[in-house]
Design goal:
The complex is a heterodimer. By secondary structure, chain A is of the alpha/beta class. Chain A contains 16 helices and 14 strands. Chain B is of the alpha/beta class. In chain B, strands 1-2-3-4-5-6-7-8 form an eight-stranded parallel barrel, surrounded by seven helices. The two termini of chain B are 26 Å apart. Classes of the chains: A alpha/beta, B alpha/beta.
């Protein structure tokens, strides 16, 4: 029997029969276009001329000196158009969907960054767009809801379950089973059924491709560690992918511990979860002993997801990548630290990676190099962090 | 031979779907007894899942109510073991892959055999992934029920050829829930199924009225009614069994 899209035991296509032909059609189309010169030329032009790639690899000199250890570089995905790495994947998928004759994009979103990116691509390519967003997230990311609507998308608040990212994914999948012929589900992370984890990874791999080229120019050598935050794991796999064969490069994913991995209010999947089958894939999930998916929590809407992409699960299993956890408190401190030290306000998601780097860097030698992926910018988080610190901000 | 065939041997089969523990197991038991007394030929028992991807709002609600009541897979397996003393019609479980996987496929499926559960329906387990559970199902003689959807097209023959128990034909695109109209060309789907297998096929998703049930049964071997029954449970709670019985009778009378 053919078993598609496996990463070790993880991955697969655990979806309703209604979606299977759509999966097969998508896989065929992707396998065709990924090697199509015209498609790649169009995508590269969009990435460069529209999204502003390549993104900078910035030497964080003040942070390096302050921490007194490894040299720190920041991969500035926050400088991309729409303010996060999400646009890399969305431009790829929207272009693919258009080639497939689809006229409507649907998407889930947590923090709103993927929703904004999808709404942006839909506007650019003249497609209809519907974004599913947990009702809880529409409140904590109100600015992004407005941005999506401004871009012409319809935002549907999802009330079911915990009213966060996992419920938005479930609802987007339900919507897709209802309307397939003209609609592409533009999945935002390296999660879900095959071929999504592979497609999204390939479109995000531009991050590590650029890091590699840029660091070789600047330092003449590869970094000792690449650090990225992990929810579903798209910016992390993008940051890791071209270094997987370079065994000297430590790959470190930072999960959201929420209020701590010893509490129930956490979203640290690798650190607290177990293997399961959900949202179309076999991977690690936060769940109870009966396989009921746990209501996870993180201050970061983008990391507030009970699962992790199957390729990360595999990299964890074989010990190629390390997955650490970072609490809300640590992430908020790092959010403020990077703002004050480098004048860069990172997304609260990316602040999880910054937080771990501030612990790791002082333990490393001055000749060593860390690259932190700043997956997005933090403007969207300012009101929520201010309120976390007890300050009122009128949006 | 699969015991599921017995459900289809006396005319068109009526298959009610009931979520275990909605609102509690005492009610579930009474609902099943009423359904069987009024002509149900096979019972589809739902084991609730926190995030039921193939369900519309009505059955999602039943899953939430049951889980809030503290129901677990172990409690349901014990419940069915006890229920089997009274209920002799074939019964199948409907749940999601993670419920079976997390319990341990071998432990779950061997228990199904022991408590005389005849089949398992997993709407998130397509043909390509059935190896996950089918070798164990075969080992214990529990049928892994396959689904065919309006979008299956070139996949129908492949699925039908390897199908066991009965084939679950999904009437429409989308998730479970009652529908005013069913527009899919189900007759053509059933024709392809018939060319590839002699196991019975039942149509489900969106069937609520006697008229719909009759139309669907006319072109297949039976009908599955889910959301319409769950709506009665949602409305009447613990008092639902009598009303479910009346509803089942209404549908069943319409089939013959």
């Amino acid at each position: 029997m053919k078993q598609s899209g496996r990463f070790g035991v993880h991955g697969g296509q655990y979806v309703p029969e209604t979606l299977m032909n759509a999966m097969i059609e998508l896989e065929k189309a992707y396998n065709h276009y990924k090697n199509d010169l015209e498609f790649n030329r169009e995508l590269e032009e969009l990435l460069n001329e529209y999204a502003g790639r390549p993104s900078r690899l910035y030497y964080a000199e003040k942070m390096t000196k302050d921490l007194g250890g490894a040299k720190i570089y920041l991969k500035r995905e926050d400088l991309n158009h729409t303010g996060a790495h999400k646009i890399n994947n969305v431009l790829g998928q929207a272009l693919l969907a258009r080639k497939m004759g689809k006229t409507r994009l649907i998407a889930e979103t947590g923090a709103g960054q993927h929703g904004v990116a999808t709404a942006t691509a839909a506007a650019l390519m003249g497609m209809k767009c519907v974004v599913f967003m947990g009702e809880e997230d529409t409140k904590r990311q109100a600015l992004n809801v407005y941005r999506m609507r401004l871009l012409g998308a319809e935002v549907i608040p999802v009330m079911s379950g915990t009213a966060t990212l996992k419920d938005a994914v479930s609802e987007a999948m339900r919507e897709w089973t209802t309307r397939i012929s003209d609609t592409h589900y533009c999945l935002g992370s390296v999660t879900g059924p095959h071929p999504f984890p592979t497609i999204v990874r390939d479109f995000q791999a531009v991050i590590s491709k650029e890091i590699k080229e840029q660091i070789l120019v600047k330092e003449g050598r590869l970094p000792d560690a690449v650090i990225a935050c992990v929810g579903g794991g798209s910016n992390a796999i993008g940051s890791f992918y071209n270094f997987i064969e370079d065994k000297g490069v430590n790959l470190i994913g930072c999960e959201a511990a929420g209020r701590g991995i010893d509490t129930f209010e956490t979203a640290a999947t690798i650190n607290t979860g177990s293997i399961g089958i959900f949202h179309g894939m076999k991977s690690y999930f936060c769940q109870d002993q009966y396989g009921q998916i746990a209501p996870v929590y993180s201050i970061s809407a983008g990391l507030d997801y009970p699962g992790i992409g199957p390729e990360h699960a595999y990299l964890h299993d074989i010990g190629r990548a390390e997955y650490v956890s970072v609490t809300d408190d640590e992430a908020v401190e790092a959010f403020e630290y990077l703002a004050k030290t480098e004048g860069i306000i990172p997304a609260i998601e990316s602040a999880h990676a910054v937080a771990y780097a501030t612990k790791l860097a002082p333990t490393m030698a001055k000749e060593q190099i860390i690259v932190i992926t700043i997956s997005g910018r933090g403007d969207k988080d300012c009101a929520a962090i201010a309120s976390y610190r007890g300050e009122g901000v009128h949006e | 031979m699969s015991r599921i065939k017995e459900a289809f041997k006396n005319g068109k089969a009526l298959i009610p779907f009931i979520t275990c523990g909605d609102p509690d197991l005492e009610t579930t038991k009474e609902v099943i007894k009423e359904a069987v007394a009024n002509g149900a030929n096979l019972i589809e028992l739902g084991i609730p899942f926190s995030d039921p991807m193939a369900e519309g709002p009505v059955i999602q609600g039943a899953n939430i109510r049951a889980l809030r009541g503290g129901i677990t897979t172990d409690i349901i397996l014990d419940f069915v073991r006890d229920l089997r003393k009274e209920i002799k019609v074939p019964m199948v479980f409907m749940t999601y892959s993670n419920v079976v996987f997390s319990y341990g496929a071998e432990a779950f499926i061997s228990t199904c055999k022991e408590i005389e559960i005849d089949g398992i329906i997993l709407p998130d387990l397509p043909f390509e992934e059935k190896e996950e559970f089918s070798p164990i199902c075969q080992k214990y003689g529990v049928n892994l029920i396959s689904l065919i959807a309006p979008t299956s097209e070139n996949r129908i023959a492949m699925i039908a050829k390897e199908a066991e128990g009965f084939l679950y034909i999904v009437s429409s695109l989308g998730v479970t829930g009652t529908r005013k109209e069913i527009k899919t060309d189900l007759k053509s789907i059933v024709e392809v199924v018939r060319q590839n297998t002699d196991i019975p096929c039942a149509i489900g998703f969106g069937i609520s009225t006697p008229d719909q049930a009759k139309k669907m049964a006319d072109i297949s071997d039976g009908v599955i009614v889910g959301s319409a029954i769950i709506k009665i449970l949602e409305k009447y709670g613990k008092c639902a069994p009598k009303y479910v019985g009346e509803y089942v009778k209404l549908i069943k009378d319409g089939l013959s």
